[in-house]
Design brief:
single chain, alpha+beta, 4 strands, globular, four-stranded antiparallel sheet, 21% helix
Length: 86
């Protein structure tokens, strides 16, 4: 799969056992964080590698945002999950 480029970040499928994606700094190539869990579904995978886990259930999406209502800011695993998975 090709890398997904977003601003100064490169997003690619994770090498970690249960993570969906790894995020790398475009300039240095260093890994910044990982986000998503392969064992769970998401509302809509905008990157596309795990789109088979999309549920498109608006009530589940609303409940996800209720549970994850704290804003950890940009860039964080929380931010990337909300931007690309939910």
């Amino acid at each position: 799969m090709k890398d997904f480029i977003f601003k100064n970040w490169i997003i690619r499928p994770s090498t970690l056992k249960h993570k969906k994606y790894d995020v790398f700094n475009k300039g240095s190539g260093k890994k910044a964080l990982s986000f998503g869990d392969k064992r769970y579904q998401q509302y809509k995978d905008k990157i596309g590698h795990y789109s088979d886990l999309d549920h498109l259930d608006k009530d589940r999406r609303k409940n996800y945002y209720k549970r994850h209502n704290k804003d950890y800011g940009y860039p964080s695993a929380d931010w990337f999950s909300k931007k690309f998975l939910w």
